[in-house]
Design brief:
This protein is α/β, with parallel strands linked by helices. The chain contains six helices and nine strands; from the N terminus they run E-E-H-H-E-E-E-H-E-H-E-H-E-E-H. Helix 4 packs parallel to helix 5. The longest helix is centred in the last third of the chain and has 18 residues.
């Protein structure tokens, strides 16, 4: 809203969105009276790194909203038109409306004492992942940012002590997770790489992981998902070996 305007927040009980189970939902709407979006912009506005703000925009805002919304099992609808403002609607299944129970536990067969490199620029995420993995009995090295992660990995390989798995965040400044994954695979092609992203599985198109990545997990990962991801990439590494 470059010339000012009205920002309206609404919540309401709503019917199920099209294409979802016919159960009551709670809608949270954020509506503005700004410049609106063209149809081409509306189709792309949830993509990571897509921005209409030039150097002032990161292209991460709506992508992060999408990731968090998807993480809570919700959906997003966008009503917009040029010069007529935009309404973004988040649709959550109402509490007690038949939400699925907890998934049945999987059989985890993760080798003990894995040596794991965790790369993230958020110190709280680094600490929580390190604590969780160490409780599971693994040796964890934490790297603050993409370049630090690459440097840690190269020093370990040079010393003849590589890593069983590398877990890296995607959205980091300067050296992001894709560049970390590329550097890891160039140095040690059989080292599994797990990519964490707050943008959810939208990053993965047609079931394929990004190049140099063996597994994508939503951020923050649940313990069950983290263990399943480790099982998946270690099975793949064993097959390659």
């Amino acid at each position: 809203m470059p010339d000012g305007g009205t920002l309206t927040l609404r919540t309401r009980l709503a019917p199920a969105p099209a294409g979802t189970a016919s159960l009551p939902h709670v809608a949270i709407e954020v509506a503005d009276s700004g410049v609106g979006m063209s149809e081409a912009t509306r189709r792309r506005c949830l993509e990571p790194f897509f921005t209409t703000k030039g150097e002032r925009g990161t292209g991460l805002g709506l992508a992060m909203v999408y990731g968090m919304t998807e993480r809570h099992g919700a959906s997003i609808e966008i009503d917009t038109a040029l010069h007529k403002g935009t309404t973004l609607r988040l649709n959550f299944l109402a509490q007690g409306a038949g939400a699925d129970g907890a998934a049945a536990p999987s059989n985890y067969q993760i080798p003990a004492n894995l040596r794991i490199l965790v790369v993230d620029d958020d110190p709280m995420v680094l600490k929580s992942l390190r604590d969780i993995l160490e409780i599971d009995g693994h040796e964890v090295v934490a790297a603050d940012g993409g370049q630090a992660g690459i440097d840690h990995f190269n020093r370990a390989v040079d010393a003849g002590a590589g890593y069983s798995v590398v877990i890296t965040d995607l959205g980091m400044p300067y050296i992001d997770g894709r560049k970390v994954a590329s550097a890891i695979k160039q140095r040690a092609p059989h080292t599994p790489v797990i990519l964490l992203t707050g943008w959810g599985q939208r990053l993965v198109s047609d079931g394929d992981n990004p190049m140099y990545v063996d597994c994508v997990l939503s951020k923050p990962p649940k313990l069950r998902e983290l263990r399943e991801g480790l099982c998946k990439v270690l099975r793949g590494a064993a097959t390659v070996a």
